[in-house]
Structures are given as structure tokens and as C-alpha cells.
Specification:
With about 190 residues, the protein is mainly beta. Helices cover about 15% and strands about 45% of the residues. The chain is built from 1 helix and 9 strands; from the N terminus they run αβββββββββ. The chain has one helix at about 1-30; strands at about 50-60, 65-70, 85-95, 100-110, 120-130, 135-145, 150-160, 165-175, 185-194.
């Protein structure tokens, strides 16, 4: 009987140790809804900084506009068009001429967000259609004070070659037509990505 008690105590001790070890292993692997991932498993290598310069062609007037009004400004006749929203699918070219090489499409919307100052809320994807980044996108979202000589928009993400992208874009108006409201804007984008 003493020998049986010793055997049971030994088995109980071993069982307890193994159970504790198993709980430690399980709790170490199961983090609930999240876990840390080695970036190499996603094919992410060393982060790099890329500079992209493109010309954004916003065509509001004419028979083939690239930007259309989807929400009109309220009838209060605001000096800043407060409340007006336009959806766009604008050409992004290598040079300031619309006839220069098409590199990407800027697809998104802008809304006139300032009641006192002429400023836009802009949300857009630069969808590349040619070259090294064909099929990839850069996403920008932010405030554009369009009367300032130089403006900045944050890069908040991307896809393809620009996964995990972050950075900023500097915007400079190249030309603006007061009659049609058409604009050509130079974008210099500085983007960190893998």
C-alpha cells in the first residue's frame, strides 16, 4: 500500500508538471485575436524611400470631365463652396502636359471643407498603370489648403509594391484655369515602403 501511495504521488507530480508545461506552451502561442508576425514571413525586406513625381490633371469643365460634382454646395452661396463634393478619376502623367505619358490614375474625392478658408478634404488612391509600380497603389488622405503655394498630404498606406507605405506628398499648383476650374497639380511623393 505504501508503495502504491508513493507511485500515485510520483504520477501526480509528473502529471502536474506536464500539465503546467502544456498550459505555458498553449498560452505562449495563443494570444487571442492578435499575434506578432516576423516580417520575413510576409516577404518584407529592408524598408526603402522612394520619390515619385507626377502631374495630377483635374478636369472639371468641358465635355469629358474627370471630376464630377456628387454633392452640391448648400444654397447659402458660401464664398468657399463649403459642402461641395466632387468624385474624380484624374490622369497622373510624367509631365505637366495631359499628352505626356500616363503613369497612374488618381481616384477618389475631395470636399470643400473650409467655411472661412478655401481648403479641401482629399481622399485618393494613386493606382499605377505603367512601369515598375504597375498594379500598385499609394493612398493619400488629408487637408489641402489650395491657395498655399506648397501643401502637404499624408501617405497613409498602399498596396502591391507600396504595402505598409507611409510618407507625405508635396503639392504645387502648376496651372489653374479660372474659367473652367481645371487644374494641373504637381505631386512630389516621398514614400517609405518595403
Amino acid at each position: 500500500m505504501a508503495r502504491l501511495s508513493q507511485m500515485s504521488a510520483f504520477q501526480f507530480t509528473i502529471f502536474s508538471l506536464l500539465s503546467s508545461f502544456t498550459l505555458i506552451l498553449v498560452s505562449g502561442e495563443n494570444l487571442g485575436f492578435h499575434s506578432t508576425v516576423d516580417r520575413k514571413l510576409l516577404g518584407l525586406q529592408k524598408e526603402k524611400l522612394t520619390h515619385v513625381r507626377l502631374y495630377w490633371h483635374d478636369i472639371v469643365g468641358g465635355s469629358h470631365p474627370s471630376a464630377i460634382e456628387v454633392v452640391p454646395a448648400p444654397s447659402n452661396k458660401s464664398q468657399t463652396n463649403f459642402g461641395l463634393v466632387r468624385m474624380f478619376d484624374n490622369a497622373l502623367t510624367e509631365g505637366p502636359e495631359l499628352s505626356s505619358k500616363l503613369v497612374a490614375r488618381a481616384q477618389g474625392f475631395y470636399g470643400f471643407a473650409g467655411q472661412v478658408e478655401l481648403s479641401l478634404l482629399m481622399a485618393q488612391n494613386f493606382a499605377f498603370v505603367a512601369g515598375e509600380f504597375n498594379g500598385s497603389t499609394i493612398t493619400l488622405l488629408g487637408r489641402n489648403s489650395i491657395l498655399n503655394k506648397v501643401r502637404e498630404l499624408p501617405v497613409i498606406g498602399g498596396s502591391g509594391a507600396f504595402r505598409f507605405a507611409r510618407g507625405y506628398a508635396e503639392l504645387r499648383t502648376h496651372t489653374f484655369n479660372l474659367t473652367s476650374s481645371d487644374a494641373i497639380v504637381e505631386y512630389n511623393i516621398y514614400v517609405l515602403h518595403y
